[in-house]
Structures are given as structure tokens and as C-alpha cells.
Amino acid sequence: MRIADRIVLAFYTLFLAVVSLMLICFAVGLFPFELVLNQLTMLHGRWELTAAAVLLFLISIRLLIAGVGGGGPKDLIVRISDGGTVRISMSAVRKFVEKSAAQVRGVHNVKARIAAGNDDLHIKMTAGVLPEMNVPETSRLIREKVKNSVRETIGREVSEVDIFFNTISYDAKEK
Fold first, then answer.
1. What is the reported pLDDT for 172?
2. How far is the C-alpha of 127 from the C-alpha of 104, rounded, in Å?
3. For the whole model, what pTM was predicted?
């Protein structure tokens, strides 16, 4: 789910919480029935209510699609030729990238996210590093290793490798 969808979801959830609170107040008798009925009759036939209802409906559909949607391509097309198409699953690419980065000395607990561009890949990863390692140098080595491995094995260029070190410890199993 993209950041814009998350922001819309936050406002949508807040709106539904307010509506739910109002319904609870009505159900327990805090709002008199006549008051609620009077307010509802004033809204009947108003174009603003129709526009708001259509907007809420469209937001609901968008959030449903974003929540249930596949979350991006499941495979990566590497080559299309007269002989056929070569595809690699994105999970295979992700695992390959994680193992390539973990081969760099002092790096552990690598987790990667891959986004495929038109001709290249964008990689974001988290990892742990041993305390005796120089973090900028280790970052450079990870980038070189991942870019070269992906280019040689998968046949795609990597435009960027963003690295977030979430641990600096001796314990390679620590998350």
C-alpha cells in the first residue's frame, strides 16, 4: 500500500470512528430521536450529500483494491526473444539479493525489497553489521556485490541499492 493510500486510510478510519461514536450516542439515547430525524430530513435531496456519498464509495473501492491487490509484479521479465520469454519470480530475485549481500564479510540478517523499473531494479535492504566493520566501506562493498551479482546472474542493471543497518552487533541472529 502506497503512502498516499495510507494517509487516505487514516482519515477514512477517523471519519468512520466519528460516525460510529455518533451512532453509539444515538443508540444509548444521548441524541434524541427527533433531533436525528430532523437533521436527516434536512439532508434529503442535497447535492452535497450525494457528492460526499460518491466520494466515500470511491475511497472505499480504492482502499479495497489497495488492500487486496497483489502489491506489485510477481515476476520479472528478463528477456523476450524469438525463442520465448524468460521470467524470474520477484521472490527469487529478493532471495538472491539477500544472499549476495550476506556474502560480504561482517554482514548478517539481510532483508531486501525489490522494485522493478523499466530497465533496472531498485533495491532497499536492511541488514546487521559487526561492530568492527567500517559501515561506509561495508555499504560500498554491499552495493558493488549486489549490482555485479544481479547483472551477471539475472541480466538486469541495478540503479540504486539503499541500505539501512538496523543492528550493529556480534549476534548474527538478533533482529
1. 60
2. 11
3. 0.58
